Every structure is written in structure tokens, then in C-alpha cells.
Amino acid sequence: MLETLGYVIVAGTAVQMVLSLYGTWRRGCLERRSFAAEARLFERRVELSLRRAEAERDLTVNAWSGFRKLKVVRKVREAEDVHSFELTAHNGRSLPRYLPGQFLTFQFRIPGRAKPLVRCYSLSDAPTDGGRYRISVKRVVAPDDAACDPGIVSGYLNDVVREGDILDVRGPTGSFISDPASDQPIVLIAGGIGITPLLSMLNAMCDGQTEREIWLFYGVRNRGQHAFAEHIAGLRQLYPTLHVVTCYSRPTESCVPGRHYDWPGRVDLALLKNALPSTNYVFYLCGPAAMMETLADGLHDWGVPANDIRVEAFGAATVRRQPSERPAPAAEPGVEIRFDRSDKTLTWDGSAGSILALAESNGVALESGCRAGHCGTCVVAVKAGTVDYPAEPAVAPEPGTCLACMAVPRGRLVLDA
Ligand SMILES: Cc1cc2nc3c(=O)[nH]c(=O)nc-3n(C[C@H](O)[C@H](O)[C@H](O)COP(=O)(O)OP(=O)(O)OC[C@H]3O[C@@H](n4cnc5c(N)ncnc54)[C@H](O)[C@@H]3O)c2cc1C
Question: What is the DSSP letter of 261?
Fold first, then answer.
């Protein structure tokens, strides 16, 4: 009996020792593994920071001024009425890297059009070494019930431009950028073709095994319009910290919930509040002006600091600044704007929205491009008076000038136009 008890005690002690040794070994392994993971993460951050520094250096050293010839080397259909265009330098030299979220400005000479047309298109992929650029363009169709024409340039790109064609392009620019080296949790909210700059950000973050918490809310009409669906589904499989919520506002019979999309309807604040565990994210929004305005206001009311809400507008309608950021109110209706070169004086009644719109509707010819304060085509010298910007232009105009597409008068104004 005593002998058996002795065996039990010895066996128990041996098991305890083995367990304790195993515990020490396992703790060591876990520590080594977590140290290795941290080291990998650190390495990746250093690499991404270096890439960002390289891109910033490239943008200043290798950037070009004016328009440069880029060749369309690949044209790919992405969805109904959406094509991507891959571009390289026509002279075979490398192109500068850019920051995810930036855009290119194009000048098109379209047969039958008296003047060249200037348009901006966001870069829709992650920057690569050697510089191949990609843009993705959605045809603007005329609304059924309006007397508007379909989009000129977007139609031309989708229908006419082919591989081998050469386009006139100004270098990458824009301040709607994200830092791929940051690990701040991030929310990307895209409406329709507004996916392009956000996809560039997403691809750049995923380029090097991201462990960053990323949410992508992507609203489109239905499967037919769901550009980059396969690519995004692939990323979703690869990256456990990437959460994708796809919304179809008008799903058709072939749209299967859970397979093609996650949520019927539009991306709205209720959906964000339901999906996100907190407001502790930096939010990037790009899509139709109405969606962005509603969401930006909603996020602000939800308690997201203005600095953590970044928006990009693709067209004339831009997102208003939050009340705390707005400048002094524009002039009261009734002030005069003198267009000196055209020898015309017009009265500002506030309904036109911008000096450019007022000029156009009264036969004063002003140059214009993006209508969103990006491309600088509508810049006009101010001879007397001051202007305001109800929405902030992406690129601040030189002192003594204004961007007519965004500016409103603060009082009597004399313009060199
Ligand atoms: C920074 C930035 C990035 C962009 N990125 C992309 C992108 O990645 N992909 C993309 O597809 N687009 C993008 N855009 C939008 C793009 O630049 C063009 O605005 C778009 O392709 C439409 O151009 P268009 O020549 O086809 O249309 P337009 O011919 O300019 O017309 C557009 C619509 O406006 C109406 N319209 C035109 N002029 C007037 C007027 N005076 N009064 C009333 N209505 C008028 C037209 O009838 C038509 O319905 C971006 C824009 C900006 C500013």
C-alpha cells in the first residue's frame, strides 16, 4: 500500500514537472512568436513609411508640370459602363509614384469640340514601382427625366478610347490621401464610382499583409454596376481584419443576398452605427454629393471629430464644411461682380451657387474643368474685392486669384475675366 502511494506521489510530481516544463516552453514559444509578429509589423511599417517618403520625393523630384503624353496600354471592362485604363509614359520613362487617393488631370481634344476639355480621374490602384497608372471611368448617362446631355468625356473614354491611344495628362495631385503605414482603424465609404480613390487606398494597405482594421462600405445599384467585385471579394478572403459591407440600392432578381451583396438599400448612418463598434476610426468618403453630405453631417453629429472625416467630391456639388469650419458668410444678394475683360457687370443673387455658374448662365465665357476646385482650369485673377469658399477647394488658389467654380463673392468684386 505504502509502495503504491509512493509510486502515485512520484508519478504526480513527474507529471507536474512535465506540465510546468511544457508551460515554460509554450510561454517561450508564444513570446517568441509575438515578438516575431511585432518585428514583422514593425518591418512592414518601416517599409510603408519608406515607400511613402519615396512617393513624396518622387512627386516633387519626378513630377512634371503641364501635360505629358501617356499611352493607354490596357483597357478593361469593370462593370456596366465602367472601364479601367492602364497608362504608361509614351516615351517609356518611368512615372513618379503617387499617394493612394490622388488623381490625374486630363485634357481631351475630342473631334467636333471647339475647345479641349479638362477632367480629373482618381488613380484606382495602389502605386507601383516603375509607375503604371490606372484610372477607372464610369459613363455619365443623362437622367431619364432631365434635359441634360450624357457625359462627354466619360462617354468618349468608354466608347472611343482604345489601347495604344495617347492622352494628355497632368501629374498626380490631391490631398484626399491616406497613409498606408498608419495603423489607425479606417473606414472607407464608397458610393458608385466613388470607389476609385478608396480602392487605391485599400490596395495600398493590403499590398503588404495588413493587420490594420479596415471597413469598406460600398454602395452600388446592383450586380451589373458592382465594379471590382471579384477583386474585393479576394481581399476579403485574404485579410481577416478587412470587413466589407456591400449595399445594393436596387437589387435585381439575379442579385443574391449574402453572395453578391450584404445589405439592401444605401449606405447610411444607421448601417454604420449598427456595424461599427465605436466612432474611433478615420472615415474616408467618396460618392454622390447627396450621400456624402448626409453621411458627413451624420458622422459629425455622432461625435466623429471633423479632422477624422475626409471627403472627395467628383463633381460640381461639393460637401459643405461643418458649421465650426465655415468662413464668414458670403455677400448678401444684390452685390455686383464686374467681369472686366468681358465688359459685363452681373448681380449676385446667391442662386447660381458659384461665380462660374453665374458667369455661364449670363454668357460670360470662363474656362472650366472639374468644377470641384481640383484642376485649376477656372482660376481667375481678382482685381478688387474678396471671395469665400462654402466648401474647401482641394488645391488652395494663389493669393490674388480665385477658383471661379467654387468661389462666391464676399462683397463687390472685380475679376480679370
Ligand atoms: C478629383 C476628381 C476625381 C474624379 N475621379 C473620377 C473617377 O475616378 N471616375 C469617374 O468616372 N469620374 C471621376 N471624376 C468625375 C470626372 O472628372 C467627370 O466629371 C465625369 O467623368 C463626367 O465628365 P463628362 O465629361 O463625361 O460629363 P459632362 O459632359 O461634364 O457632364 C456631366 C453631367 O453634367 C451635366 N452638365 C454638364 N454641364 C452642365 C451645366 N452647365 N449645367 C447643368 N448640367 C450640366 C451633363 O448633362 C451630364 O449629365 C472625378 C472628378 C474629380 C473632380
Answer: B
For all residues of the chain together, what is the average pLDDT? 88
Q: Range with the lowest mean pLDDT among 33-37, 140-144, 189-193, 353-357?
A: 33-37
* Residues spanned by the domain of 404: 336-415
CB neighbour class for 414 (10 Å; exposed up to 12, middle 13-18, buried from 19): middle
Q: pTM to 2 decimals? A: 0.81
Q: How far is the CA of 378 from the centre of ligand 1 (A)?
A: 15
Decide if 193 is inside a domain.
yes
Ligand 1: residue whose CA is nearest its atom 24: 151
- Ligand 1 pocket, residue 120 CB under 6 Å: yes
Amino acid at 89: A
72-88: b or e for each residue (b if 16 or more CB lie within 10 Å)?
Answer: beebeebbebbbbbbbb
Query: Is pLDDT above 70 for 48?
Result: no
What pLDDT was estimated at residue 17?
A: 78
How many helices (H) and strands (E) are present in the chain, helices listed first?
A: 7, 19
Mutate to test the pocket of ligand 1, among 85, 119, 403 (most ligand atoms within 8 A of CB): 119
Q: Is the CB of 106 under 6 A from ligand 1?
A: no
Cell of 60: 516633387
Nearest-CA residue for atom 30 of ligand 1 = 151
- What is the atom index within ligand 1 of the atom nearest the CA of 117? 25
Q: What is the spatial distance between Cα 402 and Cα 308, in angstroms, rounded to a whole number?
A: 27
What share of residues in the chain are helix, strand, coil (percent, to 5)?
30, 25, 45
Q: Which of 159, 196, 314, when mutated, tests ligand 1's pocket best, judged by the most ligand atoms within 8 Å of its CB? A: 314
Residues 6+ apart with CB under 8 A from 20: none
Ligand 1 and 151: CB distance under 6 A: yes
φ, ψ at 335 (rounded to 5°) = -75, 155
- Residue 206 and residue 133 in contact, taking contact as beta carbons nearer than 8 Å: no
CATH number of residue 210's parent domain:
3.40.50.80
Specify the ligand 1 atom closest to the Cα of 82. Answer: 11
Q: Are residues 242 and 305 in the same domain?
A: yes
Domain stops at, among 299, 325, 351: 325
